[in-house]
Amino acid sequence: MQALFQRLITDFQDAPPKQVIAREQVIPVDSRKIISLIGVRRCGKTYLLYGLINQLRSSVNPRNIIYLNFEDDRLHPLTLQDLDSLMEGYYALYPDKRTEKVYLFLDEIQNIPEWERYVRRIHDTLNVQLFVTGSSSRLLSQEIATSLRGRTLTYEVFPFSFREYLAYHQIEINLHSSHSRSYIQHAFNNYLHQGGFAETFGETPDIQQRTWRDYLDLIIYRDLIERYDIKNTTLLRHLIRYAMSNIGTLISVNKLFNEYKGLGHKVSKETLYQYLGYLEDAYTLFNVPIFRNSVREEQHQPRKIYAVDNGFKTLLHTSLSPDYSKLYENLVFLHLRRQSREVYYYKQTQEVDFYVPGKPSQLVNVSVDIRTPATLEREINGLLEGMRYTGLEEATLVTQEREDVLRVDGKRITIVPAWQYLLLQ
Known about the structure:
The protein is α/β, with parallel strands linked by helices. It is 46% helix and 17% strand. It has 4 domains: 2-157, P-loop containing nucleotide triphosphate hydrolases (Rossmann fold), CATH 3.40.50; 162-196, no CATH class; 203-322, Arc Repressor Mutant, subunit A; 341-425, no CATH class. It has a 6-stranded mixed beta sheet with strand order 9-10-11-12-14-13, with helices on both faces. Strands 2-3-4-1-5 form a 5-stranded parallel beta sheet, with helices on both faces. A 3-stranded antiparallel beta sheet has the order 6-8-7. Helix 1 (2-14) crosses helix 3 and helix 7 crosses helix 13.
């Protein structure tokens, strides 16, 4: 095993730098903490590591940088004991490095059982700056909360944001330029359906569909079926399709249970809860609870579900026409979720799509078409009730094209097109 580690280390160090697309996320290269990156598969975690490595190579000897991808088939199967050969093999190659700082990048580390014990030990005993990535929030968070508590900084990684999408396509962001706005709006129409997985950019619709399907298959088999030993794969696939077709709607496990039971599926409510939890762990789905001052009340209310990328929604959409309202809503959710892990919906007499507590707090409704007075009144009344409940003086209504500022009952409501909203914060 030591010889294999040495070969993989040397091959990467001798290879030319990887071509990297710049992302907006700022990750420290020198810290006293272990840096943990978590997110859905193929969202760009590996290329974030490559970017950090390229950054380091401008000031650090490449021999002081180690990168390993634990999805490399040559490293399967690998045990906790096998990991001991990693740094020993490296120091056998470069004995003088024992006294120098070494940068160690461990990609998809969650594939190794009890990996956190090894990472904790070398962090505490060796002069290493550690970076780890994983595609499971539960595995990483559980291990971090126990063995690595206080030793790590965790960063979530998502597919490309709209701002990053524009940068990839070299589209200037100048909201004061009619020329720039035209290009931005055209790009938004593509991004709305295609989402932010970089490998789909510029591809034909057929290739995009195949890519999204391959990603989902990878998540289903590698992150769910293999990891959790799922037997009812038909139910899992059906649940994914159901979730992607019902983005932004309230999900009731009781209702799902009765539907599946009526269709002849052998399923329990506990299984449905587990499968939905697994999809969240793999960063495929997110659930949004209702906002209440009582945690107990929050837990007993139904939750809304959203997808990690609009491409999955497009792939599994069951209607013949695009569901623009849900595509818009999902993009706004992802925009808010990148900023905060605490995203809620509000509902009393009226409903508001999103409430994000914090500094500043945000209250946001999404409505594609507000040309009819009844629709605009419904959205405004919901935001007014939400502002009174939360004590906010301002709220936002995200729509397709209208720009405006309304003053109602002493409150300020900003109406903004979705393409612009995604670039303002």
